[in-house]
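## tool: complex_structure
## caller: assistant
## args:
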Amino acid sequence: MKDDTKIVQAGRLKADGDVPRDVEVVNPPVYHASTVLFPDLSALSDPKRAYTYGRHGTPTTRALEAALCALEGGVRTMLVPSGLNAITTALLCFAKMGNHILVADSVYSPTRVFCDRFLTRFGIEVEYYDPRLGDIATLFRPNTSVVFCESPGSQTFEIQDLPAIAAAARPRGIIVMSDNTWASPLFYKPLPLGAHLSIQSATKYIAGHSDVMLGAITADAETAPALVQGYRLLGQAAAPDDVYATLRGLRTLSVRMARHQENGLALARWFQARPEVDRVLHPALESFPGHPIWKRDFSGASGTFSVVLKPCSTEAVAALVEGLELFGLGYSFGGYESLVMPADPRTIRTATRWQSGPLVRFHVGFEDVDDLVADLTAGFARLTAKESRK
Ligand SMILES: *Cc1c(COP(=O)(O)O)cnc(C)c1O
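## result:
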């Protein structure tokens, strides 16, 4: 099945097996369950029983897990309460005391904070690497256990050569995990490209409506048993209503991503022609340094990218951002509505140096591009007025 078909068909419950035949409906019911009742003692001791306790899964959670797993091309998906939780769970399942782990310098900054403040407490050594490094194997040590990737990088959008990283890591038994939030499993598939684990903040594009927190970890055959075991030991579970809302969002992922891509690229090209703009960090632009790898490994671009402004004051950036009417000032991305967020990559990089001017990240939603351009044009006029008054 092609992806568009999987998005519609995967994880749909079957009458008789999952739901009673006389109320077969399109979407799975929301099972609010802790206790699952067993008909008798032999059922209680049957290891093959699909449902045993709310924390271990319900038909609602299994539906979303199955759909995401089919899209990622994995063997098992586990749902957790947030994207950050998916990252911490994956790391806790595979990094052990005395290990050395390699983390891309461009990761989502809370991933860094978890590694620095939490994993180090368990005697795990964390080393950050340049996401565009040519040969990752030069950093491998006998005790290296994990390479953590995120492509493109948060805020700065560096594209990683995941197949090359996986080819170096796999023969040494090093686990490769990739935060796949930006592209969603529709536009990038870390597992078929060689990663062991793909991590999603389903909060973003998959749920797609800015109203849910949810994370997902998808594992290949080699890592699935350890992931499932670690997940259970950590007591992980996901809330039924959030799972349902995410499954509902998923069903329209491909139509939404197509529009995010179209509107995002239209604005990225418009920004490129603006005199106030130094560079646009968008992997689908031919001029972007990581573009050839993006073109090889991704099947599309989401609506999230950054703009590097020519040097200007923080007051001028504030004048641009704060007066925007159609771009909400807020964290996150992936919803139907446009967002804006200034960032300073200098504060969240250690292996590489960020020396460019002010950076502003945009998430482009489904508003009419002409209206977005008008809003931004007024924003640049405010920026210029502020700068010339200095
Ligand atoms: C938002 C985000 C996360 C964290 O997801 P939450 O659901 O907010 O916990 C992780 N990785 C990336 C790349 C993100 O953008």
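## assistant note: Residues 82-84, 108, 150, 154, 179, 181, 201, 203-204, 213, 215, 332 surround pyridoxal-5'-phosphate (CB under 6 Å). The mean pLDDT is 96. Handing back to user.
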